[in-house]
Amino acid sequence: MKINWNYIKFIGLIICITGLYAFSSHRSDSKTVEGMNLKFTGENNLYITQAMVNKLLIQNYGIIKNMPKEKLDLNTIEKVIAANEMVKSAQVYLTITGELTSNIVQRQPIGRVEGKTKFYLDEEGKKMPLSSNHSARVPIITGNITGKSLEDVYVILKYINRDDFLRKNVIGIHIEDEENYKLKFRLEHFVVNLGNVDDLEEKFNNFKAFYTKAAKDKTLGNYNIVSLEFNNQVVCTKI
Known about the structure:
alpha/beta; three-stranded mixed sheet; 6 helices; 12 strands
């Protein structure tokens, strides 16, 4: 009977490859976590810090450094970090060198509500708790706080954040009532009656045209109320 050496060589090669893979996998699983690296994307201002994330992980897993890699559940760690109220999303992975790395995207506040309870409105219009680590410089929201009025305020804030002039100058939104909103500006003493959230682009374009002309004429100080409530008009009340 003729021996098929090619077949035997092939089987031997498969056994060697399988053995090497098993050996490599065993060595990899037996390695420990060498350290942690947290990366925060977005603004430099941190509403949640590395120390806070470390504490969160210790509370759920104990000390992660020197923990065997085979005991890590990266998906669970990712969910624990992402569940924090300051975090928008998190991506967790282990590097070749054994470093546990997490890319964390923070939630971004765009307004701060000052009512019976104090909280931020984030970029998605959701409630976000205040941070003991950093206070955001965003417009202050006061007045008749309701679910409907906060929905409207979110629409106003989104528009303000898209406009460089408004973003730099609007420091407050007062809710007189649902469908009736007033704006406070950083450097001017007058109040802007916005009315409801209809036709915001037209209202703000009219206001910026008025502001530019009044600033040029040095008459901004003559007014205490600027109303944008009426169709395609800017109605001013003098002091």
